[in-house]
């Protein structure tokens, strides 16, 4: 075989290996991802442009109890990552709605959008109204906890109960000395996202150094979205969302919540936005969920605190059976 052909075939093999190692690439709204639950679409107009939110709407299995639960995902999560909780709640008789917020997962990635928790709450309220879900139990995880708080403050009459699972925003990072990042800096950071960087971060922050094979699916989802055909749009929206999270704390309004509230806290969580660029003395005093959960429970009127000792940022994924049973017990209590 001529030398140039050997070189050509070797190059093709190398490209193939690298492509395989990089994993699948999904479309900007997760086109190509294997969803195990049906995802529907809600189209509406916001800020002068047509936008779409994907959502899961699971009807009760067996005898319906007449209650609706809305699951709000976190920054590095999607509606589908609530899968085990969706199934557990549905089996217990709940209708379960799990939307993807604008900028995330199966939703639109607009080129220009003024992100605020108020705007995302309004979008969600419009979606729920279109589904005749007028009074719901809100369960928000991570960034979804900040959004659920804002929703409960804006629409208290529509919220039967609020549950926050390791919500971020239990402190004001900027006030504690965490440096501000510009949107451009966040964008450059997000363009570098890979499966390896996602897994490293989640291993250390979400799962306290213990990895399970079932977590790989969600790493693949995020990596495929961040490195697919919509890579730049995904990174840009992610940057805008990080700026929203950092600059729009809900922490100062916890005492204004009027709905029954439960905090479910994995005590080993260390999540704190911007802590990767914070000075050591600042980093040491943020993201301490063993303290933050207790402090937040004192700020929120009549709050119930449930702690998962030694668990990280996502107890619903780290110990799904224990978490789901604890959640169902809490929802069933007066």
How are the SSEs placed, and which strands pair?
Layout: H1 3-22, E1 40-46, E2 49-58, E3 68-72, H2 83-91, E4 95-99, H3 117-130, E5 136-141, H4 143-154, E6 159-165, H5 183-191, H6 195-205, H7 216-226, H8 231-247, E7 261-266, H9 280-283, H10 289-299, E8 304-308, H11 315-318, H12 320-332
Parallel strand pairs: 3-4, 3-5, 5-6, 6-7, 7-8
Antiparallel strand pairs: 1-2, 2-4
Key words describing this protein structure:
single chain; Rossmann fold; 15% strand; globular; 40% helix; eight-stranded mixed β-sheet; alpha/beta; 12 helices; 334 residues
Give your account of this protein's structure.
Strands 1-2-4-3-5-6-7-8 form an 8-stranded mixed sheet, with helices on both faces. The model is unreliable at 4-21 (pLDDT under 50). The protein has helices at 3-22, 83-91, 117-130, 143-154, 183-191, 195-205, 216-226, 231-247, 280-283, 289-299, 315-318, 320-332, and strands spanning 40-46, 49-58, 68-72, 95-99, 136-141, 159-165, 261-266, 304-308. The longest helix is centred in the N-terminal third of the chain and has 20 residues, at 3-22. The N and C termini lie far apart (78 Å). Helix 2 crosses helix 12, helix 3 crosses helix 4 and helix 5 packs across helix 8. It has one domain: Rossmann fold (3-Layer(aba) Sandwich), CATH 3.40.50. With 334 residues, it is α/β, with parallel strands linked by helices.
């Amino acid at each position: 075989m001529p030398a140039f052909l050997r070189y050509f075939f070797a190059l093709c093999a190398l490209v193939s290996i690298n492509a395989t190692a990089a994993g699948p690439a999904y479309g900007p709204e997760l086109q190509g991802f294997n969803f195990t639950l049906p995802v529907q679409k809600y189209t509406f107009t916001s800020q002068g442009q047509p936008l779409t939110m994907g959502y899961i709407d699971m009807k009760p299995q067996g005898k319906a109890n007449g209650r609706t639960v809305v699951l709000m995902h976190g920054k590095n999560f999607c509606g589908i990552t609530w899968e085990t909780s969706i199934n557990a709640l549905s089996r217990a008789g709940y209708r379960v709605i799990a939307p993807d917020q604008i900028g995330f997962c199966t939703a639109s990635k607009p080129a220009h959008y003024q992100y605020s928790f108020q705007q995302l709450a309004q979008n969600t309220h419009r979606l729920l109204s279109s589904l005749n879900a007028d009074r719901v139990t809100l369960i928000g995880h991570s960034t979804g906890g900040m959004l659920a708080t804002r929703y409960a403050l804006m629409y208290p009459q529509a919220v039967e109960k609020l549950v926050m699972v390791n919500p971020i925003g239990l402190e004001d990072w900027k006030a504690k000395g965490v440096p501000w990042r510009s949107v451009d800096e966040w964008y450059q950071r997000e363009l570098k996202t890979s499966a390896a960087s996602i897994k490293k971060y989640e291993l250390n922050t979400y799962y306290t150094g213990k990895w399970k094979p079932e977590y790989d699916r969600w790493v693949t989802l995020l990596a495929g979205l961040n490195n697919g055909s919509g890579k730049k749009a995904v990174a840009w929206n992610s940057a805008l969302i990080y700026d929203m999270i950092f600059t729009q704390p809900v922490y100062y309004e916890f005492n204004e919540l009027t709905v029954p509230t439960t905090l479910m806290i994995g005590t080993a969580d260390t999540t704190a936005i911007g802590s990767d660029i914070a000075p050591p003395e600042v980093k040491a005093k943020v993201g301490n969920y063993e303290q933050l959960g207790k402090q937040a429970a004192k700020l929120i009127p009549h709050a119930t605190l449930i702690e998962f000792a030694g668990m990280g940022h996502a107890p619903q994924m780290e110990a799904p059976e224990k978490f789901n049973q604890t959640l169902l017990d809490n929802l069933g209590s007066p």
